[in-house]
């Protein structure tokens, strides 16, 4: 199925006040690749402020990494501009780069160093004295639960451990803007929580964080605003709460069947997703309650294994952006 692009575009309501330099401001960023049918990033604008976690979300191939690489000056835009704390990334590259730490999606070049040396060396490169870099490296390894791996070479680590060490190097030097491409991908639950907590602390210190993630449910409580990309274009940019307001009054009803029930998905109304005996549908809250009461008191009850009624999540917003589905 070819997903259509939703017509509703929420504009960024949180531009910094005039005269206040955003941590990172992108205007009309555009970039394609040779022999590609469409632009990878097509006219994207947003700004991220200090003390804000700004999420860039979208399905695979939506253009997130291309966008991030333009933000940090690794990819030259075909059109548009990026300013980091007022410095133009292409025109004033060194000034802009001095403010930003970038965690790429794939592994860093520091593979033949120990974790401790990689973090310390990164902090030194970012201007810290030897003593300060050593202290900071120790603190970061402790914060991220990497102390036992401090002397292990990066190339000997598991994928998840290496990712965690990569996050530690991104945090080294306390740059005021962190641009992180999937910081929690490949991490186990404990490590993911550790990383979200570490980012939350940086936000509280006034750091601006622009990140890509597919762990949307976990990120929801951390993200102050999100930009949703679809085929290179912005389809939504707002706070998670305001994006979810699109779904005001709707809840998700999920039914899990033990065996085939004496009703069909169409009996529920709405657009039912049916996957391996699990039905999922978004309905107005009253309709959902009525449907559930009918099921619990009727012949379908004996076929029912489990059910849940949940308010809309950021994942619902993302799904609707992917499919072009309207909230109502
Ligand atoms: N080096 C490249 N050469 C040609 N096309 C590319 C290149 N890198 C990315 N693309 C294309 O550009 C589009 C955007 O890719 P990008 O990596 O930015 O997406 P993404 O949203 O980060 O995806 P994912 O979630 O899978 O990491 C895709 O259609 C991809 O195939």
Automatic annotation (TrEMBL):
Could you give one GO CC term from the UniProt record? Answer: plasma membrane
Compartment(s) where it occurs, according to its Swiss-Prot or TrEMBL record:
Cell membrane
| Residues covered by the ABC transporter domain | 24-256
Highest rank taxon of the organism: Bacteria
Classify the protein's membrane topology as the record does. Answer: Peripheral membrane protein
Record-linked PROSITE patterns: ABC_TRANSPORTER_1, ABC_TRANSPORTER_2
Q: Which UniProt keywords are listed?
A: Antibiotic resistance, ATP-binding, Nucleotide-binding, Transport
Tell me the InterPro entries matching this sequence. AAA+_ATPase (IPR003593), ABC_transporter-like_ATP-bd (IPR003439), ABC_transporter-like_CS (IPR017871), ABC_transporter_ATP-binding (IPR050763), P-loop_NTPase (IPR027417)
The UniProt GO MF terms for this protein read: ATP binding; ATP hydrolysis activity
Listed Pfam families: ABC_tran
- Principal localization? membrane
Please list the GO biological process terms of this entry.
response to antibiotic
Nucleotide-binding recorded as keyword: yes
Q: Which SUPFAM superfamilies match?
A: P-loop containing nucleoside triphosphate hydrolases
Task: Write out the coiled-coil annotation as residue ranges.
Answer: none
PANTHER family registered for this protein in UniProt: ABC TRANSPORTER ATP-BINDING PROTEIN, DOXORUBICIN RESISTANCE ATP-BINDING PROTEIN DRRA
**What is the protein name for this chain?**
ABC transporter ATP-binding protein
Organism, by scientific name, is Actinomadura soli
């Amino acid at each position: 199925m070819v997903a259509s692009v939703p017509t509703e575009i929420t504009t960024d309501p949180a531009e910094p006040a005039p005269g206040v330099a955003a941590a990172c401001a992108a205007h009309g960023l555009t970039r394609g690749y040779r022999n590609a049918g469409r632009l990878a990033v097509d006219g994207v604008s947003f700004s991220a402020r200090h003390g804000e976690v700004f999420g860039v979300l979208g399905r695979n191939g939506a253009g997130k990494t291309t966008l991030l690489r333009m933000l940090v000056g690794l990819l030259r835009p075909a059109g548009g501009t990026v300013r980091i704390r007022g410095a133009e990334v292409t025109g004033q590259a060194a000034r802009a780069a001095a403010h930003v730490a970038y965690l790429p999606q794939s592994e860093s070049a520091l593979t033949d160093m120990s974790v401790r040396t990689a973090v310390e060396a990164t902090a030194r490169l970012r201007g810290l004295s030897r003593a300060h870099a050593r202290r900071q490296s120790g603190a970061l390894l402790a914060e991220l639960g990497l102390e036992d791996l401090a002397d292990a070479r990066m190339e000997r680590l598991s994928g998840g451990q290496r990712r965690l060490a990569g996050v530690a190097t991104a945090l080294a030097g306390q740059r005021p803007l962190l641009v992180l491409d999937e910081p929690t991908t490949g991490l186990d639950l404990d490590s993911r929580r550790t990383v979200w907590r570490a980012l939350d602390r940086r936000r509280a210190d006034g750091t601006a964080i622009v990140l890509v993630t597919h762990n949307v449910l976990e990120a929801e409580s951390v993200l102050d605003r999100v930009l949703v990309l679809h085929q290179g274009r912005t389809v939504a940019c707002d706070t998670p709460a305001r994006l979810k307001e699109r779904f005001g009054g709707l809840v998700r009803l999920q039914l899990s069947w033990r065996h085939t029930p004496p009703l069909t998905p169409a009996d529920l109304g709405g657009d039912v997703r049916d996957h391996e005996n699990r039905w999922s549908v978004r309905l107005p809250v009253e309709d959902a309650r009525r449907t559930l009461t009918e099921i619990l008191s009727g012949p379908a009850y004996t076929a029912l294994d489990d059910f849940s009624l949940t308010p809309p999540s950021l994942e619902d917003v993302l799904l609707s952006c992917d499919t072009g589905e309207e909230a109502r």
